[in-house]
Amino acid sequence: MSSVSKADRKATLDVASWFFNVVTSVGIIMVNKALMATYGFSFATTLTGLHFATTTLLTVLLRWQGYIQDSYLPLPDLLKFVLFANFSIVGMNVSLMWNSVGFYQIAKLSMIPVSCFLEVVFDKVRYSRDTKLSILVVLLGVAVCTVTDVSVNIKGFLAAVIAVWSTALQQYYVHFLQRKHSLGSFDLLGHTAPVQAASLLLVGPFVDYWLTEKKVYAYNYTVISMVIMTTVNDM
């Protein structure tokens, strides 16, 4: 395969990953909130594991179609990523469960300055004056929304803080692993999704019982709720 065709393939996969991420991000936020608020499914960790189980099936299909190539990711790097990613996605789902959709989205904006902070600390990046002013505006907006949103509570706020920091670390580590091991977005997902699904489904019921004092197997499952539970995870 020529270098030109490889570059074209990478560009196509990157665009597809970006588009897929945008669509699933918006969709999953809405269906997850409906599942939690309307159908009373308050088991955020188990829910995340179910999402990743479906995502794992998708990666198998993508590998069969040739969109995911055989690649290598050392076990220590994989486990560190899974740790950050699990805290990230579970924290986001718990934040969504305990906060309004508006505050949840506002909290996600906080990842911008946190991600910039990590780049300054680890990569010695220096930002321009205009960029710093833009980050300041974001922080002011988040602060105003946090103070004025009457639905904010201590549990929800702490969940949002954990989610923001773990997600920023995950995103930083994604770029680090992709550069270090020359992995595409789907290639990395093929390594991480099965491990995340297994780990979250294993510990999910116990974590959810600790958070909610409810047992996941006692939930009154319906066809609609089960369809929502098995949607593809936001990547």
Automatic annotation (TrEMBL):
**Compartmental location:** Membrane
Xref: InterPro entries: Sugar_P_trans_dom, TPT_transporter
Q: Which sequence ranges are marked TM in the entry?
A: 12-31, 43-66, 78-96, 133-151, 188-210, 216-233
Membrane topology annotation: Multi-pass membrane protein
Is the keyword Transmembrane assigned to this protein? yes
Primary localisation category: membrane
Q: Determine if Ribonucleoprotein is one of this entry's keywords.
A: no
Name by which UniProt lists this protein? UDP-rhamnose/UDP-galactose transporter 4-like isoform X3
Protein keywords: Membrane, Transmembrane, Transmembrane helix
Pfam families this protein is in? TPT (PF03151)
Q: Listed GO cellular component terms?
A: membrane
What is the species of this protein?
A: Durio zibethinus
Q: Which residues form the Sugar phosphate transporter domain?
A: 16-207
Tell me the gene name. LOC111299812
